[in-house]
Amino acid sequence: MTSPGSDSGTGHPGTATTRRVVAASFIGNLVEWFDYAVYGYLATTIAVVFFPATSPTAGLLATFGVFALSFVVRPVGGIFWGYFGDRFGRRSALSLSILIMSVATFVIALLPGYAQVGVLAPVLLLVVRTVQGFSAAGEYAGAAAFLFEYAPRHRRGLHTSVVPASTAAGLLLGSVVVTVLTSTLPPEAVESWGWRVPFLLAAPLGLIGRYIRTKLEDTPEFRVLAERESVARTPLKETFAHNKRAIVVAFGATCLNAVGFYTLLSYMPTYLTTELHLDESDAFLSTTIALVGYIGAVFAMGRLADVVGRRAMLAAAGILFAVLAVPVFLLLGPGGLVGITLVQLALGTVLTLNDAALPAYLAELFPTRVRYSGFAFSFNTANAVFGGTAPFVATALIHGSGSVVAPAWYLAAAGAVAAFSLLASRRIRTTRPTAPPPRTREEGSRP
């Protein structure tokens, strides 16, 4: 007997339900990363508003330092949201996380600057950014697990590619909003009040995403666990007891995603304007085009991941970045706007080899009982170490070495680490549950 709204005889949700699941995941993830985009794209302005007493370089480093520090809480958030999602359901965790993120982003728009309250201004900025980091820790892993557990087995790569696509869409929306803002307002207006406008948009977007999520049932796989009273009581403890190797591999595989995503898609406009002295509007235009290309490519790569396999694609992406990151970065300078845009498109497309396959691969590494916890902890720990620090490290490497190509070496190293991790994952057997999943001994079968 099939459940309401499912495809007859398959046990999978029907088309209408699947569309709502995809929409809920897409909008929620978009809102979460819209904030990260706006913060990164307005970094030079935020540096002036909150760190005016420093030099431009020091102010920029301080701004990216706050960006990085907000990631420190991500592993803690991963533990919390993993517990919440594995214990009480994916939908409940995702509905709460988007609410916290929306409120925190809205609060940034109301913060006083250094001119009004002095050193308290950057302190308040750090506090709010920390709340955002805590919230974001539950979004990527939760949305991926949600989509993975709803998707047909042969289309899990395509369905979970919605997560990186929506993440990039958040960056794209941020890029468009900031481009319009900086091209229509004089710099003085942007610094005095214009920078607050994008953050104000988070509230209505977040409420829409939350509303859609509350109208959905939890995933078929989680509902089966709940009905059998087989939900993990201590998910993180269970994760470490039975999935230590999977955590290590997941951490390593995520390194390229962390460094690549935040370097190429978030930090790049700042890099182009401050290091290559490209006009600000041109920098945002180039990044916007690259993001559109990334979104289109990531869906195609997600479908490809279902055909050729996740691990092969992830390993290929790591090797390509290890070998090509530096030579391709060297083409950014002399190519002009067209050349820079083409280079960004090329790098973004190679990154989709990794990003499209990663959500399904990480979800497959962990059994249903602890999928949220294993995914969230490993993914957020890697992003705390390598992702949130990427803009700061890139800026520090440039000014420490005197070379504008320095970020490329960081990308190459991340690619090498990811490729090595994937080679080490051969002995790990990924989970391939059907819907509804049978209960296993590992999942705590009861007599």
TrEMBL record:
Question: Per the record's keyword annotation, is Cell cycle included, yes or no?
Answer: no
| Gene3D superfamilies, per database record | MFS general substrate transporter like domains (1.20.1250.20)
Q: Which residues form the signal peptide?
A: none
Which SUPFAM superfamilies does the record match to this protein? MFS general substrate transporter
Topological type in the membrane: Multi-pass membrane protein
Q: Which InterPro entries match?
A: H+-coupled_symporters (IPR051084), MFS (IPR011701), MFS_dom (IPR020846), MFS_trans_sf (IPR036259), Sugar_transporter_CS (IPR005829)
User: Does the UniProt entry include the keyword Kinase?
Assistant: no
- Pfam families this protein is in? MFS_1
Q: Which PROSITE patterns match?
A: MFS, SUGAR_TRANSPORT_1
The places in or outside the cell where this protein is found are:
Cell membrane
Q: Where is the Major facilitator superfamily (MFS) profile domain?
A: 21-427
Major subcellular location class = membrane
Q: Which UniProt keywords apply?
A: Cell membrane, Membrane, Symport, Transmembrane, Transmembrane helix, Transport
What domain of life is recorded for the organism? Answer: Bacteria
Task: List residues traversing the bilayer.
Answer: 60-84, 96-117, 123-148, 160-181, 193-212, 246-264, 284-305, 312-332, 338-363, 375-398, 404-424
What family is it from?
Answer: Belongs to the major facilitator superfamily. Metabolite:H+ Symporter (MHS) family (TC 2.A.1.6) family.
Name of the protein? MFS transporter
Question: Which lineage ranks, top first, belong to the organism behind this chain?
Answer: Bacteria, Bacillati, Actinomycetota, Actinomycetes, Pseudonocardiales
